[in-house]
Structure formats: C-alpha cells, structure tokens
C-alpha cells in the first residue's frame, strides 16, 4: 500500500510517494497554487490519490523549535481536515528541519541553486515521508 508524503507551504505543496512495500519514499512533484489557496492545493492532490491508490498521507506539521504549533502548524491542521474530506487517513509528522536536510542533500549532490528552488519542496516531502516510513520499519 503506497503512502503520500506532503510538505505544505503558502504557495507550494511538495508531494512524494512510497514504494508499494512502504519502505522507500521518492519525489513526485511540487504543486504550485495561489498564495494561501489551500482549496486549490487540495484539489491538485486528488489525481495522485487516484494514480497511486493511496489511503494514507503523511503531512508535515511545522513546529517551532520549542515544540509549539504556530500559524503554519494551524494551517496544516486545517489542510489535514480538507484531505480527510477526500477520504484519506492523514498522519501529522513533525517536519522540523526537513527543508534544511533536503537542502543539504541537494547541495551535496551539486544541484544548482536554480534547480534546488524548483525541487526543494518535493525533497522535503521525501524527508517527511521517509522519516515516517523508517519509524514503521
């Protein structure tokens, strides 16, 4: 059973998916939408739900370093409800430092700054999903 990994931003949504065994996450796409139009972002997730036949999504939950959930975290909680309305089970996953880790991986792979900007969100989604998968295996 495949699982989606999602990294929600204010204008982008990084999407990743697991393999059929639920062991390895891979990048899929960075969905772009108008600033704070989370309804549109949710609609753009639907084709991936069908394509990969997923029942579960792991959504990054941004927290402050002290563990508090701020405004971005509240937006993720709202987005979780939108995804659940599509019939998905949604697992919230602490995403602190995932973008930093994704950036380091891309830099070590000598990916140009311009290309990193285009794929950083989907790589962060991979980090979120892989962390979740590793905790299960």
UniProtKB/TrEMBL annotation:
The keyword Manganese does not apply. The keyword Transcription does not apply. GO terms for cellular component: cytosol. Residues 1-102 form the YqgF/RNase H-like domain. InterPro entries: RNaseH-like_sf (IPR012337), YqgF (IPR005227), YqgF/RNaseH-like_dom (IPR006641), YqgF/RNaseH-like_dom_sf (IPR037027). It is an enzyme of class 3 (hydrolase). Belongs to the YqgF HJR family. This is Putative pre-16S rRNA nuclease.
